[in-house]
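Lab channel / #folding
Pinned by the channel admin:
"Please post every new chain as: sequence first, then the structure tokens as a reply. Keep commentary short and put observations after the output so the thread stays searchable."

First post following the new format, from NK:
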Amino acid sequence: MDTTTAQAGSNRQRYQIVEKIDAGGMAEIFLAKAMSIQGMEKTVAIKRVLPSLTKNKNFIDMFLDEARLSIRLNHANIVQVIDVNRSGETYFIVMEFVDGYNVRRIFQRANELGKRIPIASACYLMMEVCKGLQHAHTKRDDSGKHLHIVHRDLSPPNILVSKSGEVKITDFGLAKATSQLTKTDPGIVKGKYSYLCPEVTDGKQPDLRADIFAAGVVLWELLANRRLFLASTDGETVDLVRKANVPKLSKFNADVSPELERIIGKALERDPKKRYTTARHFGDAIADFLFKNNLKTTSYDLAKLVDGLFGKASTDGAAVGADRIEQMIVEEINNLSMLGFSSSVRGLEGGEAIKAESLPSVASATGRFDLSDVWRGGSEVKVRAGNSGTRTQTLKAMEELRSASQLIRMLEGEVAPAPSAVAAAGASTDVAAPSDNTSVPAKSDEKSGGAGFMIILLGLIVAAGVVAYFIINR
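Reply from TO:
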């Protein structure tokens, strides 16, 4: 805020700002301390209207409508509003501070680490969301009149999970209630497009079943590990929502049972009349599924999930970046060298180097080596002829080899036997002199080729190191 403190009410309670923790297009959120008598403090979150919007009467009215609505809601699964006030020319809401992460961040973090949200944890999370929705949907005013509250913006950023495993819905800024003084303008669609319900895209007024549809979308995405309704433009996304064609979850997560798919599918029915009539019914269906399948899950399990994803994020962030860089280097090495076929790198069977001394001979008459146990293919190994249709001198030379030591020395480029000389003389020596027609790679050429590869590899590692430095220290 403009100053480090803001007065609230006649009791002179003061809120001391600690740091800004989030900001959006309309408001910003601060971590603060509620200062009371004798130095007592309580950590809170303060949502303040952006200064540029304070002169917009319609927006201020909407902001106060949110505060007026939220302060009525008192439930364990809804972020509690503590105070609403004004400081100078700006308005702010003091809310319960949830020490944790929103579902969008949890989803992203799991993807970064290559993990999936466990089915039981995702179901328990949504069961808790349904409890909060049920409270809001059935809320009445002091005279007993039903308020008909609809959140209308239930989405991953508005579902918080604390480090203790608590699940809380926040941001009723788009909520609709009969007590609102500011009515939604006709034709104005409010809410994140990917989590709208089909009837809203047709211009119809949403009711509590819109929140049930949005809850179904969030649960589907957590289990499928991908977005449900998302296109390259807002218009195309809205069109996807309008059609409400939901792919089978089992296509993306084989562990999702038909029973669970039916439960989520009912929440995602295009026709609101076919959906669950209340959030409680949806939550009860999820609870029954967990119970029948012995998937006992509590807030402790969610706390363990959050800790597993973020527990060391503050201290090991650099290490995670370094690990990703190291993985990139290994992948590049595999692409550029024969290390890609090493079982130690790829984990492939049959990738170890061939030991020539251990190869058996087919027959003593030919002295050739039996490679049938080396190749993993189902067909026989065929000899490839040269472009002229004749057998190359290299192939002929290899066929005339009589021992493993000859094979090794030839592959190392030291010698290459002259096929004609070997055949004519029937020589018993291990090494034959190279013929004038046989090209023998020199030892220095082999070393220079290896050196060239090492230079490329070292250059790659240095470049990756520079990238890692900027990632870790940015």
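NK: The chain is about 40% helix and 10% strand.
TO: also worth noting, Strands lie at 5-8, 13-23, 27-35, 41-49, 81-87, 90-96, 100-102, 159-162, 167-169.
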